[in-house]
Amino acid sequence: MNASPTAGKVRALSAEHSGRLMGIAREVSFPQGTRLFEEGRHADRFWIIRSGTVALDMHVPGRRAAVIEILGHNELIGWSWLFGPHTWHLGAEATSPVRAYEFDAETVRAMCQADPALGMAVAQWAGDIVARRLRSARNRLLDLYAPYGSGSLR
Predict the structure, then answer these.
(1) In this predicted model, what pLDDT tens digit does every residue of 21-61 receive, in sequence order?
(2) Cα angle value 119/122/124 (rounded, 5°)
(3) What share of the chain is helix, strand, coil (3-state, %, to 5)?
(4) Which residues contact 24 (CB under 8 A, 6 or more apart)?
(5) Are 25 and 36 in contact (CB under 8 A)?
(6) Ordered DSSP codes for 65-126
(7) Could you give all domains of the chain from N- to C-terminal order, each with its CATH number?
(8) How far apart are alpha carbons 79 and 99 in whole angstroms?
(9) What is the full per-residue pLDDT of the chain (154 aa) written as tens digits?
(10) What are the φ and ψ backbone dihedral angles of 100, each rounded to 5 degrees?
(11) Residue 58: in which H helix or E strand, if any?
(12) Which of 38, 71, 79, 152 is an S-S bond match for 126, by CB 3.0 to 4.6 Å?
């Protein structure tokens, strides 16, 4: 369930692009149990974890939310801010005390619009994370809800 070592890192971007983003970052902390966001609500920010862990979860009617992935050090929390309609596709909860860098989505989108090279790099970075997390969500849901022995994963 844990992500690959470079999956959400800002340093997956070029030094120039990473530096520009880090220039607008704000340091924040969340106690264990804090809900960072809820599925379906407005996505107006994102974070890079400095320390601690955050569970991404998905609402499952009639059941407890299914944990899709646990994120840790240097990983991106949230990508829904980049793609319209800017609503969260998952929920997120701090599973330990968390320290993170927080980014204002509107500011980053404006930076990306003003600099197409930055915009393309950020879109590629986030797109890679989205693809990996969708595969993770599918596999996790199959693990949780598919009948045992119902077939192999592709």
Answers:
(1) 999 999 999 999 999 999 999 999 999 999 999 999 988 88
(2) 105
(3) 35, 25, 40
(4) 103, 104, 107, 108, 111
(5) no
(6) PEEEEEE-TT-EE--TTTSTT-B-SSEEEESS-EEEEEEEHHHHHHHHHH-HHHHHHHHHHH
(7) 10-141 (2.60.120.10)
(8) 18
(9) 333 334 445 557 889 999 999 999 999 999 999 999 999 999 999 999 999 999 999 888 888 888 888 999 999 999 999 989 999 989 999 999 999 999 999 999 999 999 999 999 999 999 888 888 888 778 877 877 777 655 555 5
(10) -150, 165
(11) strand 54-58
(12) 79
Residue type for 10, please? V
The pLDDT score that the predictor gives to residue 130 is 85
Q: Which two tokens stand for residue 63?
A: 């059941």
d(CA 122, CA 107): 13
Contact 91, 43 (CB under 8 A): no
CB 78 within 8 A of CB 46: yes
